[in-house]
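Render Regulatory protein Crp in 3D.
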Amino acid sequence: MKKRNITEFQILSEVVRKQPHIKQKEIADTLGITVQGVSEHMRNLMKEEFIKNKGRGEYVITEKGMAVLKSWISDFKSYLNDVNQNLYRYKDVWPAIAAEDVVSGDNIGIFMKKGLIYASKELNSNATAKVFFGGLKGEDIAIHDIKGHIEVNKGKVIVLKIPAEVMGGSRNVNYDIITDTITEYPESVIATAGTVGNVVTSRLEIHPDIRFAVSEGIVSACNRGSDVIAIITGKMAEKIIKVIDKNKISYILLDASKNIDLSEFE
């Protein structure tokens, strides 16, 4: 239904509710539009023979108007029913990532990994669901009928403090410490910030999950059960440690610099 018809549907409804004594200003106040707008729509309704003006501000709906109003009401009911069904469907259906191939109707266990919900037929979990729309391993799927509670243990932060540019920057980084840490925590979210951090991750062919609003991103990831490896220069590391301390998140601080003689860079 077009916007114009919606307004005229409302005006017709007001005429039915209050006929024959109804003022255009009264309709305007009820619908939140101007009197001029009401007047224009009422002229059109009279032109279409949906209402009659009996004079002295008296308007009544015609049989033709009653028929079109019933038709509009039916259209609105169908539209609202469709919206309502989609609303509940949206509420009850959740996205997840398939840990293996699944099809509609499969009973699955659900768990958190790197802050995302995964679904697995092989998992014995306190949290279960049914597959609404299936998919292949690694694809997004839809799940519903969720039961139980997804266990989410707050993650920790491994802060890899790298030297700022004045301390040698990426040239003074112990890359073995970084790669060993990533190997030790393979499911961790990677966070970095600043020029040196981005050069370091680029050299290691790492694609950071968090690059902006780093402190907030780290806290959010930990609250969703992910460990975070933060490759950060000294001053930024201090700021991040204050934030994670405030949010009662545990952390490990490692020095990822070579600690070499800076005169080598002169």
